[in-house]
């Protein structure tokens, strides 16, 4: 203790020796401890702390240390005294001494240290201090916590806040109780660090700790998502706010809408803005400006103009930057009327406008073909501000004149160009080549070759280095013209070649535009000879542009020549939409495989620095093309290029693609090799996988593919490997493994998998028909070996999950129950089949009859005949084969009176045959009894049979019986002919159990994210069960969740309205469709339904499907939906016409005629033009 006292004194001396104080003033926010302490020394420390007498405080602390009476409060007071005089190093030394002595600092002590580090701007020490306290589960003030999080945000490194999050997650009963504000700060920090996933982890931790989120929490959570472009996750947070009744500020709505527009998710921006308006949140000018862009992109011009009118009505007016943003968006989208309105409104509200605003407006007039407006605006600018001193406005005028077309005659255009050319030359200093090129383009677009040549000569004198740009400007002008100036382009290309002027990027792009537009393929080949890639600024882009245009028009032969040229130039062109082109090449199986094109596209794809899932699929499509072309070595090159792209594991989807393409191409060995590599990779890195769902899905798909190609060994290896490392296969892979284990007679493993049936089936959606087929095949497999135990295990599993067995499964189960003397189960199955609306196969009925025959249960046989409407003659024939007299006699006596026409009545020939059969078995008494029954109940007995029976009775001495027969035979001889007159498929487990309310509650009450396909499946199940109101409720929830509906969802909602005859709701849905421009989706779904209804399978199942499609079309028209002629004309064409009722056919025909009368005439050559 004495030595430590010396240390304190030395500390005091060292502090004195350091001299002067820091210049920065010490904050007055140091917490002053108010304590009642009896110790005289501690009272001295309190006085020193309040006055900042750190020297005396250190001496007192040394005395206390010598006496062994130091504690956390004493240290706190000494540190406070040092802090008031800004002795920061001494404060840190005291804190280290506390740690050495095992004294835990108080929370105010930590606060003072944090303030000291803030003054010194020492972020690392603040973070370390707070993190250490949290790790030791010592209390930290909320102010200190906020300071640490703020410093983490300024550093922008996620490792420090992630460590804090891990501590908070793993610490139970934390001494530091955080509120929603602290979690909001942590979420904001992760957002700044671009880790939105950790932001969500922070939110879920907050919920686990019972803290309710506030506006700031959700705002920061959304900002963290949009900062990384995760707009779907941001929209999900908005949905959670709506569920909890939390209304966020306008700023976060505006920021999200801006990000949605940036990510081209314009429909979601519209939906978010609509909910914002419904909540009464006032939109800022920036938000409204972005909504103008969103509504334009969603083809909702009326809403876009409504937003614009709100901008116009603002007081004070929106700032100039808002107007400039609107004008820029209008230029990009081509909405020129709104552009000019914005410019006019800005002119009214601001005296001085930027030069670029006039450039935008002039360009808008030019694109409209309104030369007068463009020139008038230029003249207004000159009158107000004088001739422009920048070339921007002049270039806009020249570009407008380049699109003049027939608006002006060539002489007027030439004079106008010359006028503004002279003005530009006079007032613009240091005139550059683009201005010359713009003027050349204006002359060229009007076909004024004379003036164009003069301008070229002028540029040679004044700007000789711009010759290449002048020629490219002229070629661009020729390409912009509405006239076909391809010949002029060819002439100028030859001039450039003759003068040794290399083509630049713009010239090649413009020339190829014109040549492709007018299908001048020979000129494209000549253009290849003129091209010198060394002269291009971006040769890969230029050649890729030419190649992309040829690929878009499916000119494969010329595209191959461009590919050959690029190979000769050693250039790898950048091609647009490579995945789409490769998909088209892979799907085109009729023509010759374009392997050279596919291979080059794939090579460019694998040359990227990083490749994503889309690129992997594109490369696999190229492999398919190469497989068809038998270029196996190139397939191997692509595969190895894909593998070596990343040294550590490749994306697992790459393995899926190579395995599937190899199997479909017949390369099973290559598929097995790739699967082995994938399996080794998974076993090595499975512990590092965070989300195993994608891995499980890929493995499941591969297992299903191997099962389809009979690769049983690979199926079992992959499935058991998944199970061993804790991955869950989907239902299809599970069924494949179940079937494979059964085929190899591994009954024990099959039994284990059957016990897990519900777990596998509930984990992933699966078609119930697939489950039915697989389990029925298992039943048939075990029935062949008479394994009754496994037959009944599988069959009873199907019954427990309400799956529909086929006839083979029923046969096998009934035989198994019969062999086990379980006739009660046979009767139970018989009753189920009898009440089923589905057709019962005759073999199943035959099996039931045989089971009852073995038990000699004639009453059950009669019941079977009644239930399944069997032919009694066939049943009696079956009884003959049993060689038993009493069942035959009893069955023949069960027919009832003739007049009742019971289903058990036999035909006259069969009755005769039955009597003969009894007589042949020496069953005279039974034959007499049957004959008497027949005669007494109105049946006829053939004379020769009756005589044989009487003779037999006479021989046996049964005269009284013979007398009775004679009396009955003579009394009634009426001859009367007897006549004879049998589950729904389920798609999901909940639909199988008809739990439609649960399906509805799942979508209405759950906070989980669903996609549109899942909503459509739920609506279809409820529709199938007749729960039409449920369908509309699910549809309503879908519209509240910012999910974009598809055509199937809309048609299901309309179907429900049709079933309920609710035209009011149907009209609301149709208004929603029209408002958001979703008509194409509905029309596509109608085409899909009609195509399916006309398929042979659909006609065999339900021939009324076409009629139902027609009824839906008429109901849509009644609700106000404009059904196009493409749908109605198909309905009125064969064979659909023959399947429509007369009333439906007539109404559709009248509708089509009315539509044709109202359709405006539009020439064919203007089909692709903008209105």
Automatic annotation (TrEMBL):
<dbReference type="Pfam" id="PF13812">
    <property type="entry name" value="PPR_3"/>
</dbReference>
<feature type="repeat" description="PPR">
    <location>
        <begin position="71"/>
        <end position="105"/>
    </location>
</feature>
<dbReference type="GO" id="GO:0003729">
    <property type="term" value="F:mRNA binding"/>
</dbReference>
<dbReference type="Pfam" id="PF01535">
    <property type="entry name" value="PPR"/>
</dbReference>
<dbReference type="InterPro" id="IPR011990">
    <property type="entry name" value="TPR-like_helical_dom_sf"/>
</dbReference>
<protein>
    <recommendedName>
        <fullName>Pentacotripeptide-repeat region of PRORP domain-containing protein</fullName>
    </recommendedName>
</protein>
<dbReference type="InterPro" id="IPR002885">
    <property type="entry name" value="PPR_rpt"/>
</dbReference>
